Amino acid sequence: MLTWGDVRRWDPASIGRVADALNDGCTRMIAASDDVGAMARFTGWTGEAATSASIRSESLTSTLERLVAEASAVRRGAHEVQIALDRIVAFVRETDELAHRNGLVIGLGGEISVGVARADQSRVMAELADRIEQGLRRAADVDADFAAILGRALRGEITEQGGGTLAQAADAGAAQSGLSIIGPPENGSPGDNKAWWASLSDTAKVALLQGNPGLVGNLDGIPAADRDAANRAVLAREIARLQGDPKLKGLEAIERRLAQSEPQAFLLGLDTSGDGKAIVSAGNPDTAANVATYVPGTGSELAKIGGDLNRSDKMWAAATTSGSPSTAVITWLGYDAPNEITDAASAKYADGGKAALAGFQDGLRETHQGPPSHNTVLGHSYGTTVVGHAAVDGGLAADELVFVASPGVGAHDVSELHLDGVNQDEIGEHVHATVAEHDMINLANVEIAGYDPILGQDPTDTDFGGQVFTSAPGTDGWGGYSTEAHSEYWEDNNPSLNNLGQIIAGKPTT
Fold first, then answer.
1. CA-CA to 140 of 20 to 30 Å: which in 268, 395, 491, 500?
2. pLDDT tens, 160-198?
3. What's the pLDDT at 50?
4. Percentage of the chain modeled with pLDDT above 90
């Protein structure tokens, strides 16, 4: 039975050296295959000796095919196990560090003792006990996975699928090395996806992240770190594939953002079809106390995502300055946004994106670790219409809604909006809105001949029932309005940016 001390001493690099040695051996055997085949290919050689040489050549070739197939299977399995061990060893190290920071010690058998007495150690000890149990379970799973792969090779269950070359035998063996993995439930909820992912061993997760990252990266209910690992692989592939495509600019902006260290970014979704979609988080939403999802508006597409990533970073900084102990701000370009202002008069884009936004928010609740986070969903321009339609239709898994420069949110007042976990008679306290005095969007919110605006009531109207916060007037223009004012809410000297940070941090606005 594995102990905490056993796992603490594990050396993933040693498994990597086994994989490298097996790879070298396979390469040498494949290189020698022509020499073996040449035994029976002397022109004009006939007779008993020639027949014996031919039989011997075929026997050696068959043996080499089997050995190459088995070695390739173990090599691939060892490589996947090494990555799984890296994850577990890092988990063990983080757990030991958590204990040390809180004056506690974890013994070789997993027992927890007090090194230095401190306040609130009982809560940390309970968390450590859970982590130790989880770590040992994961370690046992990986140990069993590698034993199964080795057992199949030793029992001769890895077949060379003869009739091909040694290189083909190596490919066949590698393909047979993995464990049988059942895919995610079809059309599963975020909770279903979470349960499926939790049922897999670390080795199986690594195999999926390496072999089929596109399957995992966009599933709501999968932890942020794993979605990020999968989508980074897809990102690298798509950057290589889309040279010369306008979307490449957006992919490279994401790549640069992922390379920055503060705050750490997580790529939670990527789709390069059409105008493209992407979901990028500044900070880890699974561990942050305050999590915000920012939905951009008209004209948003993958090629232009760099500006939206910058806005999310500014909101992260504003929330941190406002006293948020840990924050994640997510750029959610997970819907097909209207391309032109004329398209934004239609609610069809909001209706097309509302279910995806609701599912994403449900997934954030499923994967969050520890006490529930304080979640905000924030829309800008047509993004507010998407947020509003999602909240009208059945509720969003969020604590706050924020509408910035809205053309309408599909509701006449706050009573038509619903947030999971917020009492309906208190909904007005959790809906926030702002619009700049000179923002051109004000023209879309004018009532004509007694009819409501096309996309619904202006959420900054007094009778809408929400909390209106201050923004700078913005750049003045023709007739008192400008398009520039529509994008200035994230300027450093604009009080709206500070207010957005306050809302995300769960603090009062001005």
1. 268
2. 555 566 566 656 655 555 555 677 888 899 999 999 999
3. 66
4. 61
pLDDT digits (tens, 9 = 90+) for 43-96: 566 677 766 766 666 666 667 777 777 777 777 778 888 888 888 898 899 999
Per the structure block, which two tokens stand in for 140? 């046992």
| Edge-to-edge strand list for the sheet holding 431-434 | 265-271, 277-282, 327-333, 290-295, 374-380, 400-404, 431-434, 467-468
CB 429 within 8 A of CB 467: yes
Which tokens in the block code for residue 322?
Answer: 């406002």
- Tokens representing 279? 């979901």
What is each CA distance from 316 to 222, 262, 324, 424, in whole angstroms? 23, 10, 9, 29
Answer whether residue 201 shows pLDDT above 50: yes
- Reference 406, options 427, 389, 382; nearest CA is 382
What is d(CA 321, CA 357) in angstroms, rounded to the nearest whole number? 28
- Return the H-helix or E-strand segment holding 255: helix 247-259
- 332 vs 390: CA distance, rounded Å: 14
CB atoms under 10 Å from CB of 114, counted, come to 12
Strands 374-380, 400-404: parallel, antiparallel or unpaired by DSSP? parallel
Which residues are registered as beta bridge partners of 291?
328, 375
Distance (Å, rounded) from C-alpha 376 to C-alpha 431?
Answer: 10
